[in-house]
């Protein structure tokens, strides 16, 4: 084999390895940032149940900040159907006001 040809292949493989390493590092960094952002903003939120109504519509029960929310999901968007205060929150509020 010709030495310049071999050198070109080695350089190409090295350049590809550098590009893939940079890409893997960026993916790792973005996932880590996404996880920390979710922990900051979503630690009080839990999706309790999801009930599929058909292929495109579903109901989701979410618990957030001591309240239960029933949310309807469709291709056109999201609709808050109802909001209920948790029983423990109600009893704690009643005992504070007494």
Automatic annotation (TrEMBL):
GO cellular component term of the entry, any: bacterial-type flagellum basal body
Matches recorded under InterPro entries: Flagellar_biosynth_FliO, FliO/MopB
Subcellular localization: Bacterial flagellum basal body; Cell membrane
A Pfam family recorded for this sequence: FliO
Keyword Transmembrane helix carried by entry: yes
Spans through the membrane: 6-30
Keyword flag Membrane: yes
Keywords recorded for this protein, A-Z: Bacterial flagellum, Cell membrane, Cell projection, Cilium, Flagellum, Membrane, Transmembrane, Transmembrane helix
Example GO biological process: bacterial-type flagellum organization
Family: Belongs to the FliO/MopB family.
Protein's UniProt name: Flagellar biosynthetic protein FliO
Organism (species): Mariprofundus ferrinatatus
């Amino acid at each position: 084999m010709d030495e310049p040809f071999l050198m070109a292949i080695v350089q190409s493989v090295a350049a590809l390895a550098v590009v893939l390493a940079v890409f893997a590092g960026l993916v790792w960094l973005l996932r880590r940032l996404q996880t920390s952002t979710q922990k900051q903003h979503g630690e009080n939120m839990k999706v309790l149940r999801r009930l599929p109504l058909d292929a495109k519509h579903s109901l989701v029960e979410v618990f957030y900040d001591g309240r239960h929310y029933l949310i309807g999901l469709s291709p056109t968007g999201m609709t808050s159907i109802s909001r209920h205060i948790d029983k423990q929150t109600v009893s704690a509020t009643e005992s504070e006001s007494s």
